[in-house]
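User: Show me a protein chain along with its predicted structure.
Assistant: Here is one chain, sequence first, then structure tokens.
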Amino acid sequence: METTTPAPEATYAGLDIAKDRLDYTVDGVRCDHVPNTAAGHERLLAALRSLRHLRVVCEATGGYERAIVAALLLAKIEVCVVNPGRVRAFALAEGLLAKTDRLDAQLLRRFGQRVQPRLHLPMDAAAITLRELLDYRRQVSEQLVAVRNRLELAGPVLRPRLEGQVEFLQKELAESDRLIAEHIDHDGTLRRKAARLRELQGAGPVLTATLLAHVPELGEIESPQLSALIGVAPFAHDSGRRHRARHVRGGRAVVRHVLYMAAVAATRHNPVLAAFYARLVAAGKPKPVALVAVMRKMLHVLNRLLADPDFVLVR
């Protein structure tokens, strides 16, 4: 479970975030709203600053929450950014079928009180910029794959245009990699952490940058928690005498996808992880299960590398 330290004295506020508007409630009854703009953020902060032990609960909305979450953290107000699926499941458990911005704000407040979700860790400006660069790189990479797939079946009319798109996207991808490497190199904290993470053979530049941008908890929490956070921890699915296979679920998909590709490379080029993978397969584990175990092992090692400056890898 992603829960934070229980705080009976905490005052939870629900914050529903839309593209143009923020609806919030502190008492669970009265609901106010402000525009989702810099001026609206200031109005919201003015209304919340006087409250003691405040924790604001909001959903991850694909990016619309970033500015207000950053403003709240800058104002020293605790924030919990939760998965919308968990909140909707909580609503169904309550029997709440209706959905409005006002009801969502009240629902988020009740969710915070009952579940006490994990606090959102603040990120510095350099990490936020790195995340934006990685988001752009991922978009370019996905577009490149899509255009190449079309190119395979393209006729003589479309082929030259698609080839031009491929050339452009390849240049953009290379430029994105250059900007990401340059950004990390120019920031002392990112450069130090990246160098430490790259000590693990298999942790390439894309995985390193992704962890720095999307996992601020790395090196700060225990490895089992980190595995659940990323979505590589197997969960039991048993009932009575029936014991089903365990499966991973949830977590941060962006990180998990990059970690998967890094684990595939590590099973071929990292002697320690390759031997670990081979032992699991020889013991009868399906290859996908063994690969997830390698992902989990990599996370554990990477977490130790940042948490313990004296930790040394076996070569």
